[in-house]
Automatic annotation (TrEMBL), chain A:
Protein origin, superkingdom: Bacteria
Calcineurin-like phosphoesterase domain span: 1-220
GO molecular-function terms, A-Z: phosphatase activity
Gene Ontology terms: cellular component: cytoplasm
Official protein name in the record: Calcineurin-like phosphoesterase family protein
Similarity field: Belongs to the metallophosphoesterase superfamily. YfcE family.
InterPro entries: Ap4A_hydrolase (IPR050126), Calcineurin-like_PHP_lpxH (IPR024654), Metallo-depent_PP-like (IPR029052), Pesterase_MJ0912 (IPR011152)
Origin species: Lyngbya aestuarii BL J
Any Pfam family: Metallophos_2
From TrEMBL, chain B:
Name under which the protein is recorded: CobW/HypB/UreG, nucleotide-binding domain protein
Lineage of the organism: Bacteria, Bacillati, Cyanobacteriota, Cyanophyceae, Oscillatoriophycideae
Amino acid sequence: MKIAVMSCIHGNYEALNAVLLDIDEQKAEKIYCLGDLVGYGPFPHAVVEQIRSLDIPTVQGCWDEDIVEGLNACECSYPSLLAERRGRNAHEWTHNNIYPETREFLAQLPLTLKTENLCFVHGSPHSNHEYLMPSMDAFTALERVLSAEADVLFCGHTHIPYLRQLEGGQLQVKINQPHLNDEQNLSFTTPLKHIINVGSVGEPRHGRPNATYVIYDTETQGATLREVEYDYQKTCAAIIEKGLPPIFAWRLARGLEYAEKADDPTHVCQR
Amino acid sequence: MITAVTGPPGAGKTHWIREQISKTTDPVGYFNPGEDSVVIDGTCLACEFPQVQIFTSGEELQRFNPEFVSTTYIEIPWHFDLSSVEPLLTRLNLKRIAIIPSSSQNPEWENWADSAILGNKNIAEPLSKNHNYSVQIHRNLLTGEILDWTSLALFWFELIQGAYGEVIRAKGIFDLVSGESIYGDYVAGTINQEFVALNVPLWLTGRPERFSGLEIVGFNLQLKEISQTLKDCFIPESQIDYYQQQIQTSLQTEEEVTP
């Protein structure tokens, strides 16, 4: 069965519709969404309505959570004062423009979805604020997939798509505790695991404005990264028209994020 | 000897003056009638060469006296009408130098000069052309403000990439929370240097009482956005003391562990 997995739409309705059309052309039988429906972009309500009307299984992203619970990520989420002020501007705008029913929908989204050996999260199985970067050391990456009790872990949040294969191997763990005389030796074999980051529909950071998502074939286990062109100028015009900072439009048109990511992207906020 | 230097923006006027000053340890005067209160080039020269004295508008006539300094450089900005400064230049009986790129399409500077020197030949075409009224010069006096480095780097990237209008020349001196004063320089069409720290003491006690500022030349500049984004890079008053104490503690620790 072909499934489509997308993430990080960020209120970009034009990009979402272009991706949905492309998914239709790819004849995917099921769509999953990894959250961050809102934040930064000009159409948070329309995006949520579209996702809801199509009954797309969706997990809660960090921006969805912040809109529900209030912005309380610690300062170190931002690499600079400028990025922090922009993030706060975007949060305030979204907070003021979102409908109550949209907020209610975001509030009830689960943090994790599972179907058979596939797991869907926004950031990582531990937190929707954690970045699973492609450079993360293999042991930690493997731990994240094992903790999800899945063979394939789908994530977003970094806005950079990638496919990572964690080869099966023999792991040995030595435990030495003060109250135990003998050292404990544990060993176990790990099967082949995959992490698939599906990129971002509405806020790419790969140097082009195009939306990205992934088609996954559950039978062949093949993943295809799709890059979809759309009329990003419409979104840029709406950003300015609706009173969001014009710099968001400039950055979107160049495939840059609205605000820079933290220096230490693996950092998880201590809330 | 007094030397007047002019040429298009980014051609290397200040660079040429700097090369001349570096050959002497005698007192040297420097006057740039276009810098007003935003004295970026003069501050850089004075930081690098202690023998440089900066003349400000209004005092130039008495300071051009050889009793004070035997050598003076007058840097005439590219946007000045040369005929308007001609009465002053005639009275001073000086040498005239034009720094021009190879692509210069404006013979006015060459005709005006006693000698023309080839400067930065890679500057973008708009810099070497005759400029009309649509060119804007925007200056921000930033003295007393302390900027967050990563915010400044982000703003600078966006600025020179055209987020706030077409920028053909930008230069600035900025005080950072680390106590450093740094200089940034952008000339469209050329490979631009990283920010460099000026040779001045670290300022770690309150707001810096020394010059900092920004000058931008370009077209369709979004001045309101530029000013607001710069403000968003400022360290808030309430946090200045906290950061400066942290830097001071860190420096003291370094001194203690260094034998």
